[in-house]
Amino acid sequence: MAVKPLEDRVLVKPIEKETMTESGLYLPESSKERPIQGQVVATGPGKLLDNGTRAALSVKKGDRVVYGKYAGTEVEIKGDKHLILRETELLGVIQG
Hints:
This protein is an all-beta fold. It is built from no helices and 6 strands.
C-alpha cells in the first residue's frame, strides 16, 4: 500500500529516540516522549494557489525534519507508524 499526500501535506516516518542513555542506562517505556524528528517519506504536489499554479514545497523525500510534539495525524502503513503533516506544521529541516 502506498500513500500519496495531497496538497501541501507531507508523510513523515518518526525517528524514535534511543532507549539507552550515553552512560549505558536503559530508559523505561514510561519516560519516553513522543518523537519530534522524522524522515520525509513522500510529499504532495504543493498548495494550489488562487492563480491556478502550485506552490513548491520546501522539503523533499529523504529530508530529516523537526515538528511539534502533537502535530499531524498518525497513520499506520504496513505496520509502521507515520505522520501526515501540513508543510506549515514542520518547524525545520535538519542539515548535516
